[in-house]
Amino acid sequence: MKRKISWAICMLCTSVIYAQDFTHSAEVAPVSTSGFHKLLLSPELLGKANSDLTDLRIYDEKGVQQPYLIQQEAARASHRSFHTYDITQRENPEDSTSYLIFQNHTKQAITEVHIIVENTEVKKRARLSGSHDQKKWFAIKNDYLLQSMHSADHTTDSNVLRFPLSNYPYFKLEIDDNLKDPIHILKVGYYATEVKKGRTTSFDFPIVSQLDSANHSYVRLVLPDTTYLENLQLEVKGADYYARDIQVFLKKKNTNNKNQTSHILQQIGSATLSSSGSRAINLGNIQAQELLLKINNQDNQALQISKVTGSFLNQYAIINLSPEHSYQIKFGDRNLHAPNYDLAAFIDQIPSELALTHLSAIHRISDNTPTTQKSTSLFENIYFIWSTIGLVGLVLALISIKMIKEMGSK
């Protein structure tokens, strides 16, 4: 009996009631194909969700939670690619000197070319010459040694030929093949690294007022609701030449120990506005509705801030969607932990190029009715409290009955 009672108490104490208190939701735009998509997260969602996005949950029309991954654009991404030159002529006479001619269409001055060859382990002597008309050739470099052109992982290998800066439209590579078979050159070209800026979302940050006082200007910016941003871009009028220090303050609500609220200004950024330089201000990652710009004019005429734009690097939820289902994203629960999905283990199997989809307008969940599950304190749950009281009463009753029986038997 004692063991059964102890077991029941333990089971009751380890039970937890789950609920989730989302405050906002938005519909996911329908998709036309099945598969992984990039769901663009709007500045309004990022402004209302937890700063680390631990509260995002996506459900289908049946309320089944859908796994996702968060991805953010990099400020800059580099990509190295191979660009080929056209091979206009190729000759491989037996037991003689083989050659190929390739064309430098742009006549860009170059100092090296890469040849892509099928794996080989021979030694060859080569030389390079250039021409403007493919009739008269001029020596560029003699006595290249081509050797060890093979890869352990691929059937081809790349070999670089360096030479003095040249901008001939035609180049001829000659290789000595006396008494030997030629090597198989597949491509001639060069590697180029392209740097691309990450995609961003931008929006107007309305100017409510500008007050010019003494040596400073104060510009008040107010959005309709809390919004996420990382940078401000200013358009300035009033002077052809200027270099002014500017500070950015965030208006925040502060609650003291007596539960009294007030507003404070917290500095979140600074920069120098320059007519010959940038008029952008980096703020980090912030959620804001109202900002104050303070410009130090010193002894100069005040500048007029005509337009302010907020922006941030795009953030996405990578998720598998189907046109046969509808989806909804919910967020706003400050106490919710980040989900743990199996999908994270298969990130390398998700294609890098994905179709983009968007969210509809965000709306508030009016009644905060618990929809799925989240842990809450046992001692705040009325069912747990009354169940515990009932169980304790039952145990006391059993003990009392047992004691009465023992007294009667004596």
Quick overview:
By secondary structure, the protein is mainly β. The protein has helices at 2-14, 43-48, 382-409, and strands spanning 24-27, 35-40, 57-60, 65-66, 68-72, 76-84, 86-91, 97-103, 110-118, 124-131, 137-146, 156-166, 170-176, 185-197, 200-204, 207-213, 216-237, 243-255, 261-274, 280-296, 304-313, 315-321, 327-331, 355-357, 363-364.
Key words describing this protein structure:
410 residues; mainly beta; Jelly Rolls; 3 domains; seven-stranded antiparallel beta sheet; 3 helices; 11% helix; flat; disordered N terminus
Describe this structure in words.
This protein is mainly beta and 410 residues long. The chain has 3 domains: 18-72 and 318-375, no CATH class; 80-196, Jelly Rolls (Sandwich), CATH 2.60.120.260; 201-313, Sandwich (Jelly Rolls), CATH 2.60.120.260. Helix content is 11%, strand content 50%. It is flat, with a radius of gyration of 35 Å.
